[in-house]
């Protein structure tokens, strides 16, 4: 699933990435063809190289790691302390 304001659908991203990777077009030329920026074209091409067609979908923006989060044991004790 892609968000509504995404300029490229996953299929469009795949076509853009293949244009750069498989057809060996420069990212600037591919970006112009797909009406995007060269940095976006390079980013999707890199993701295609690393993950293939499965990498063309949106990723979660949720952080993978939160070093400063409150431990679960502390959260369960908080209501007891405030009553």
UniProtKB/TrEMBL annotation:
Residues 73-83 have a biased composition (Polar residues). Residues 3-71 form the DNA-binding domain. It holds the Pfam family LZ_Tnp_IS481. Residues 44-61 have a biased composition (Basic and acidic residues). InterPro entries: DNA-bd_IS481-type, Homeodomain-like_sf. Residues 27-83 are annotated as: Disordered. This is Transposase.
């Amino acid at each position: 699933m892609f968000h509504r304001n995404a300029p490229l659908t996953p299929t469009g991203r795949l076509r853009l990435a293949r244009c750069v990777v498989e057809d060996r077009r420069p990212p600037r030329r591919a970006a112009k063809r797909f009406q995007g920026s060269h940095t976006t074209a390079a980013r999707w091409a890199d993701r295609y190289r690393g993950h293939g067609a499965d990498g063309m979908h949106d990723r979660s923006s949720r952080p993978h790691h939160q070093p400063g989060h409150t431990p679960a044991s502390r959260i369960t004790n908080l209501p007891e302390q405030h009553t």
